[in-house]
Amino acid sequence: MPAESAPSPSRLVLVVGVGSAGSRHLANLRSLGHDRILLCRSGRGSPAVGPAPGEYEVVGSLDAALARAPWAVIVANPTALHVPTALQAARAGAHLFIEKPLSHSWEGVDELVREVERRALVAMVAYQFRFHPGLRAVKAWLEEGRVGRVVSAHAFWGEYLPGWHPWEDYRSGYSARKDLGGGVVHTLSHPIDYLWWLLGPVEWVSAETGRLSTLEVEVEDVASLSLRHASGSLSRIYLDFARRPPRHDLEVVGTMGTIRWDNGDGVARLFRADTGEWTQADPPPGFERNHLFVGEMEHFLGCLARGKAPECGVGEGVQGLRVALAAHQSAEEGRRVHV
Q1: Residue 202 · residue 227 · CB < 8 Å
Q2: Rounded to an integer, what distance in angstroms lies between the CA atom of residue 297 and that of residue 13?
Q3: What does residue 8 show for φ and ψ, rounded to 5 degrees?
Q4: 97 forms bridges with which residues in the sheet?
Q5: Strands 257-262, 247-254: parallel, antiparallel or unpaired by DSSP?
Q6: Contact 194, 129 (CB under 8 A)
Q7: Collapsed DSSP state (helix, strand, coil) of residue 237
Q8: How much of the chain, in percent, has pLDDT values that exceed 90?
Q9: What's the pLDDT tens digit per position in 31-52?
Q10: Are the CB atoms for 324 and 185 separated by under 8 Å?
């Protein structure tokens, strides 16, 4: 993506939660020239992650942190705490960068949306795959009609949960715990977001979920979702916490060709039926995973500088949450659920 205009680094940014995600956002803020940062952390997270003691000012209370009147708040605590934290920050007048997913339930979501709208806040939900150069190529091809009308799409993401953060017990992390909003549907919700982004709104969901692996988790570790989009196209999403080696890819089938994207090499490939040939879009030289996170943070800071709505705002986060909650309802009730 082109560089965004950055706001003045003299404005205070508060980072709430300094685990793996929060630490990454903190480092990327610094790399983008923003160093007036306050941290709010409970102290219950892993001591193996986060900045060195004394490197930043740290407070243990959100009330105390918000009393400092931060300009923006990075909400990077567990999923179940996203909305309560964001709502309190919005009431204090702070702009919001909220880790995905927006939430694991509807509680407080409508109120948060109203506060954001009433105060004209910039509020972004951090679905970093929207900033992947391969997926952005896929979106451009679809908008150009390169494969005709989309018939179906298939997204697959399986990744072994204990391998994510080897420095901590996976059983204590939010992904494995029901009370913190874990499970594959919420934790691995990126395909829900980018299929909505690529193919348009979802009308209904049919899903099956289960706790089928040998992992010691309180939540579903496998899920299969079928989506019907308002455009008429169908999509399928498969998610699990068990797969070794990891796999994350996407295929989109159209009336005039096929598009494939693989997160492993980052390449997007386009097959045109009229020519019988494949073309591909490669990531830029030196591309690495953290560039997705830098891209989304740069976009957020640019939106703050210009007072512009972010590419993935709270409204988009709400749409993804609707699909995720409909998937859980469908799995529990054994029926198709309208979104």
Answers
A1: yes
A2: 12
A3: -65, 130
A4: 74, 124
A5: antiparallel
A6: yes
A7: strand
A8: 91
A9: 999 989 999 987 665 555 667 6
A10: yes
